[in-house]
Specification:
With 304 residues, the protein is an alpha+beta fold. The chain has helices at residues 75-112, 116-148, 150-172, 195-207, 252-259, 265-271; strands at residues 177-187, 212-215, 218-220, 226-229, 232-235, 238-240, 244-249, 275-286. The strands form two sheets. It has a five-stranded antiparallel β-sheet. Strands 4-5-6 form a three-stranded antiparallel β-sheet, covered by helices on one side. The longest helix has 38 residues, at 75-112.
């Protein structure tokens, strides 16, 4: 027979009866369960008891991060954009450095394969170019220095005005001129030379570079008119007679060549029974003058 106590067995004196395994102890009949002391209460499993309120004056707990990996919302997107921008800049710099290196290597290979004569020629060209640039720089500095001085500037302006006045006077026929040119004589024994023949001679000489001329002591200008009939020709209203003497300043060789071209002035006058004598000279004086006429309609254009 087993010695295990039954369910109604009374425990020995001084011992607290223990409930069987798996059973919850029940309070004695007529007694209510006593609550646990304040601060020591522990919620039972499965209950939704709220967490205890913090004591007054205690520091607030730190805020928990709301973004991934402990970052605030949006900071991850900004970091991604900044990283992409840095990667793009580094890529551009790397590509530029690579292009410069390839260009330099290409130039070095080009000169490395050149012959010694080619290298010497290239060096001479560079030296000549440098010399020309240095000369141009020196000229510009000299011109700047001349213009920087008020006295030099005034003198240079006066000299430039004098040269322009002389050039215009020679072209207009208001001042005498001398220089290399031609002495041409047109013989007309049969008085067959026409107005057109004299005009052709003037145009051929101007086309060959004539700067100024006179015919029988009459200065030829930009507004010169040849009129009359064969044997009775006039220039600007002044009569001229054969043989007609033409003094012209310009390139002697060019002007003589222009007069002797086939079908030119010399040949046309020869077809009319006349002859033309041409002599080159290093000192031709054109001293016939034209009066300075004031323009009737034209006037200088001034700055607005």
């Amino acid at each position: 027979m087993s010695d295990a106590p039954g369910p109604d067995a009374t425990p020995p004196d001084g011992e607290v009866p223990q409930p069987p395994a798996g059973e919850v102890p029940q309070p004695p009949a007529g007694e209510l369960p006593q609550p646990a002391p304040a601060g020591d209460a522990v919620p039972e499993l499965g209950t939704d008891a709220p967490p205890p309120a913090p004591d007054a004056g205690s520091p607030a707990p730190p805020a928990e991060p709301t973004g991934p990996s402990g970052t605030a919302p949006g900071s991850g997107r900004r970091s991604d954009r900044l990283a992409a921008a840095l990667i793009g800049v580094l890529t551009l710099l790397l590509g530029f450095a690579f292009a410069v290196q390839v260009r330099t290597v290409g130039d070095d290979n080009q000169y490395a394969g050149a012959r010694e004569e080619d290298l010497v020629r290239i060096l001479d060209e560079l030296n000549a170019r440098e010399e020309r640039l240095r000369q141009q720089l020196a000229d510009q500095r000299s011109a700047l220095q001349d213009l920087s001085s008020s006295d030099s500037q005034t003198a240079a302006a006066v000299e430039e005005a004098r040269r322009r006045s002389e050039a215009i006077g020679i072209l207009n026929g208001t001042i005498a001129a001398r220089g290399a040119g031609l002495r041409m004589t047109i013989h007309d024994p049969d008085q067959e030379v026409r107005v057109a023949d004299i005009l052709d001679a003037v145009q051929e000489l101007r086309g060959a570079g004539a700067e100024t001329m006179q015919i029988d002591d009459v200065r030829v200008g930009v507004s010169t008119a040849v009129t009359g009939q064969p044997g009775d020709l006039m220039i600007d209203g002044h009569p001229i007679s054969a043989p007609y003497e033409v003094l012209v300043i310009g390139s002697p060789q060019d002007m003589e060549t222009a007069l002797n071209i086939p079908g030119g002035v010399v040949q046309d006058i020869g077809n009319r029974g006349g002859t033309v004598d041409i002599a080159q000279s290093r000192d031709v004086v054109v001293d016939a003058l034209r009066p300075l006429e004031a323009p009737q309609y034209a006037s200088p254009k001034t700055a607005d």
